[in-house]
Amino acid sequence: MAAGFGDFVAGTAASGELVVQPRMGFGDVATMRTGLLATKRARATTAGTITVDSYTRVGDLDSAAAALASGAALNGYPLVSHGVAVNRELLRGVRDATFPVQVRHGSANPGKIFEALLDAGLDATEGGPVSYCLPYSRIPLNQAVDHWARGCELLATRGRAEGREPHLETFGGCVLGQLCPPGQLVALSVLEGLFFQAHGLRDISLSYAQQTSPRQDVEAVLALRALAGEFLAGVRWHVVVYAYMGVYPETPRGAASLLAAAAELAVRTGAERLIVKTEAESQRIPTIKENVAALELAGTTARAARPVEPPPSSTDSQVYAEARRLVEATLELHPDVGRALLRAFKLGYLDIPYCVHPDNRGAARSHIDGDGALRWADVGALPLDGLVTRRRSRPVGSAELLDALHYVQRRHDGQG
């Protein structure tokens, strides 16, 4: 079987290097190819990214095709509309054993995208039935679960039949990007990983997005690794850390500080891959040059960082306790992981703060405590009795929520 995305990451980790990867997608084929080649040539150990456009993400392929025909700008690469021949030409001389490429998409119904990436000879993508439904779609969660079950099975069976071991990354540890306490992010990452395994995937990655507290982030990634070891027997997995996904610093110095902290978090906790952000994130879509600069900064920081020695215990932290409780409570609801997820959201056993999707109960709330850690302000129906106080004495108001959304930006821009 040909070496794939998971093989590359595993080999890189074994050599002591961190894989760094951009979020990058352009509608124009020449620009997309230039971006991939620049990523490949960056002074870091990199993986390539093809991020699809928003029309393709929601299945509006007619609009994607019309934009291509008219020359209108797109905010990503229309993988399905460009077709097999164009996609293969895009990758010719770019993707190889030293440079894997992953397709990123944001779709609650990924079937066509999975078909197109397989047709192009690719083997890696990401998302999940919860993480690409609740934040990005208004289709019912039960439909997303069914779409993702079929998509996983297509990716697993066809990929393997064509001599590749497909790789799928859960976006579960990044749901809404911010203000979700880490215990639930870790739980969702593990639960989507179990969903992938149940539908045939044997090579996966588990995500976690950098949050508001470096100390709590270390607890979270270590908890994620511990729970993956306990629950995901029989699959190969690695952990991918995302640079902060909320309101980003406005100054170059602040953006560099935050990205460097993400790279240090990845190395200290043994994560194998990092998704970077650039100094332009607070203002506009970054250029290829800005993406390369972020990759090189992350790579340089990672090489200078050192893992925690010895690593702190991963099974006696608050994050681990909350995540394990949520995983176990969900799995007890139904032997099928997809049905268990649906019941968990219906009952409020899983509940994403400030998420307005109709299938999210919306009773749970979070706040940032005096030490900068994300905590539960109101757990709603989350099964966390004995671990978390059910309700804070003072509810979270709009002013406190707005302040929390800008907390990381202010800290790294030196505004307190």
From TrEMBL:
Assigned keywords, A-Z = Cobalamin, Cobalt, Isomerase
Q: Which Gene Ontology terms cover its molecular function?
A: cobalamin binding; methylaspartate mutase activity
- Alphabetical GO biological process terms: anaerobic L-glutamate catabolic process
Pfam families xrefs: Met_asp_mut_E
Top-level taxonomic group? Bacteria
Tell me the SUPFAM superfamilies matching this sequence: Cobalamin (vitamin B12)-dependent enzymes (SSF51703)
InterPro entries, per the entry = Cbl-dep_enz_cat (IPR016176), Glu_mut_E (IPR006396)
List the protein's name.
Methylaspartate mutase epsilon subunit
Instruction: Tell me which species this is from.
Output: Nonomuraea solani
